[in-house]
Amino acid sequence: MCKKINNKNLGFTLVELLISMGVIAVIAVVSSQILISLVSTSVNVQRKNEIEQSYTIIMQKLTKIIQDGNNAGSSASSVNLFSPLQINTSLDISCFRMLNNELQMAATQNTPCASVGNNSYRNLSFSKNIVVTTINSTTPPFFISDTNPVKVRIRLKFSDPLDPTFSQEVDRTVTLRKTYKN
User: 52, 109, 112, 124 - which has most CB atoms within 10 Å?
Assistant: First the structure.
């Protein structure tokens, strides 16, 4: 009896291997581009959220302090808010200023803001990744109207130092509640 010899090869041809390697390479490149895009988008969203969160917290704190003030004064880059303490007759003064792209605050008693030392101020930005500037370099960050009631207009810009396109501008007017006069 004669056995038939099967000439069928059980391996892959060189062309089949090259085609499969090319398909795998294309899939790998597309997958890596999608992954890089997702990571980049995630980082951008995280930075934007950090800016929004920081400006929201700062503006809430600033608004509360301004609304509780009895009187206000300002200079080119600062605002001074006065409110008497309940305990004694001393004057509690909250001083806000812009310095080196930071919104800073100092709380004093019976000391004018111009006399407050630099060590008394603290940065209100909770992150070093946030830059606080004025919206327009020709206008001050704080403007006080002496009408009835007294109002403080706040004009600030919160941005990311690495990418200035991530920014949030705030132009808000806050009324000092205790300055309403009959």
Answer: 124
Domain count for the chain: 1
**pLDDT tens per residue across span 54-66:** 888 888 888 887 7
Instruction: Answer whether residue 115 is part of any domain.
Output: yes
**Percent of residues, the chain, with pLDDT higher than 90:** 15
Spatial contact of 72 and 79, defined as CB atoms under 8 Å apart: yes
| 24 assigned to some structural domain | no
Pair of tokens at residue 147 = 């009408």
Residue 163 resides in a domain: yes
pLDDT tens figures, 90-136: 556 677 777 777 777 777 776 666 677 777 777 776 666 777 777 77
Q: Does any domain span residue 90? A: yes
